[in-house]
Each structure stands twice: as C-alpha cells, then as structure tokens.
Amino acid sequence: MVTALSYGTTGLSVGQRVFGLSDSYRGGTLAEYVAVEARNLAPLPGDVDFTVGASVAMPGLTAWQGLFEHGRLKQYRGIATRYDKTARNFLAALHLAAATIWLN
Question: What SS3 state is found at 21?
C-alpha cells in the first residue's frame, strides 16, 4: 500500500494497493516500510489479497525473461517449460505465451 510519494511521482496515489519488485541493491522488502521506484509497481486488484500479490511479481518476471528475452518468443507456437512444485513460473509462462496470440 502506498503510504507516501516522493515529489514528482506520477501514476500512484497514497492509499493505493500495489505490488511489484524492489531494486536488488536496495533490499529491505521484509521491512514494514520500503522505498520503491514507481516504475517497479503495479496496481493490485481489490479482489487479490496482499499475500497473493507478493508472490506474483518474481515468477512473472522470471517467466517474461525466459520467454521473451532469452527465448525470443514473438508469438505463441508452443512452449516447453519445467513444471515446478509451486507451478507459479509454469503458469505465468503459459499465460504470457498465450497472451501473444491476442497481442500480435
């Protein structure tokens, strides 16, 4: 939840529910409050609790990098991915790959 904004920050408001990633050099994400750049945050839908929101960003980023940056996926033609215990990376990869059908 956004509790304060730096001067000139746009796209966010105090009290807004958000999720995202902190910069790797800052750390501190287990702290009660943490400073994060606005570009690393996204709105958290009202029907999604904070626990789920906290578990989405890293698997989603991992799937994105694997598919689009390292795998150079342009449009879905079938993917092979490892199904891990939590299935988060697998499901995120599947959703991102399928989304390319409608995006292209």
Answer: coil
Name residue 41's beta-bridge partners: 20
Task: Give the C-alpha separation, 44 to 46, whole Å.
Answer: 6
Q: What are 69's two structure tokens?
A: 């940056």
Reduced DSSP (H G I as helix, E B as strand, rest coil) percent helix, strand, coil of the chain, to 5: 35, 5, 60
Sign of CA dihedral 94, 95, 100, 102: positive
**3-class SS of residue 66:** helix
Helix (H) / strand (E) element for 58: namely helix 57-64
Q: What is the pLDDT of residues 67-93, one digit of tens each?
A: 777 777 666 555 555 555 555 656 666
* pTM of the entire predicted model: 0.62
36: burial class by Cβ within 10 Å (0-12, 13-18, 19+)?
middle
Q: How many other β-carbons are positioned within 10 Å of the β-carbon of residue 72?
A: 7
